[in-house]
Amino acid sequence: MKPETRRQILKIGAKTTLALFFPLPISAAIKLTIPASRSLSFYNTHTKESLYVCYFKNGRYDPKALSQINFILRDHRTGDIRPIARELLDLLTMVASQVKAQKTFHVISGYRSPATNAMLHSITTGVARKSLHMVGKAIDIRIPNYSTLALRDLCINLHQGGVGYYPKSNFVHLDIGQVRYWDS
């Protein structure tokens, strides 16, 4: 075997090994599998507000649409509004593209203020002290006429962040943190 060929084979092997141990970041992986135009539909279960919005078109995020999403996903207890991570919206778009039923996300919790999170943490074991809800990187959802167990499995199979399953409360937690899974 020629030295040049051996070097090429070694380079390919090294790149393959690195790819196994250091997969694409979540944002890069998501961008490979979502459409050029991205829309989402939300129903806030606490405020009874609905929103259908195209948040990404012509190669860019629409600031007005993002503001509308931030508003519907606000902390319903305090009224506080914070930006929701674009990567989370793109992950929800991936989820919606896999669902074969109605695709409106019923939102149980989007953004949570530190005060709301601390209050919920003090009364239940299912709320993390440093929840990703407080930085707009997590959402608790269900989809009407779609099993939350099936939704959990779908989200787990995407391998894109944290997935928590809360069957008694009938919702799935989804975040863009480290890949991990839990059931309540």
Task: Please report the first level of CATH classification, the CATH class.
Answer: Alpha Beta
Structural domain count: 1
Residue runs with pLDDT of under 50 for 5 or more positions: 26-32
Largest pleated sheet:
8 strands, mixed
Number of β-strand runs: 8
What structural class results from the helix and strand content? alpha+beta
Strand content: 15-25%
Determine the number of helices (DSSP H or I, runs of at least 4 residues). Answer: 6
User: Residue share in helices?
Assistant: 25-40%
Provide mean pLDDT, rounded. Answer: 85
Terminal CA distance reads 57 Å
Question: Rg from C-alpha positions?
Answer: 19 Å
Structural commentary:
There is one protein chain. The chain has 184 residues and is an alpha+beta fold. The chain has a single domain, classed as Muramoyl-pentapeptide Carboxypeptidase, domain 2, CATH 3.30.1380. It has 6 helices and 8 strands, in the order H-H-E-E-E-H-H-E-H-E-H-E-E-E. The chain has helices spanning 3-21, 26-31, 63-72, 86-98, 114-123, 148-158, and strands at 38-44, 50-57, 60-61, 104-109, 138-142, 162-166, 171-175, 180-183. Strands 3-2-1-4-5-7-6-8 form an 8-stranded mixed beta sheet. A hairpin with a 4-residue loop joins strand 6 (162-166) and strand 7 (171-175). The longest helix is centred in the N-terminal third of the chain and has 19 residues, at 3-21. It is globular, with a radius of gyration of 19 Å. The model is unreliable at 26-32 (pLDDT under 50).
